[in-house]
Amino acid sequence: MNDDIQPKIDACELASSLLQTSDGYLDKVIKLWKIGNSIYGECWDTEFHVFGVIESDTDHLPTVQVRQHCSAKMLKNSDAKLLKIIDFYKQDVIGACNAILAKQQNV
What we know:
Layout: H1 5-20, H2 25-40, H3 49-57, H4 64-67, H5 72-104
Helix pairs in contact: 1-2, 1-5, 2-3, 3-5
């Protein structure tokens, strides 16, 4: 498979997943930010822009892999912060996911 196509396929899968559920939200956002950077060089001013913003806003929160090393108190606080982030960026994320699907789906 063409190396240029796989990131677009992955982006569409992640975008579809984010439209369905916020499970694994932080990890999906980080992956979308990285994919946007791999496709465009920088994700700024593209359909991936909001994921770079969220990644920057949440870089202090634990990813799925890190959560096992965190205390219950830290996880409770982190989850509360993440819920606020999810709510704050909800419409932007929906728009970005739909834009990713519109632009990248027909690769």
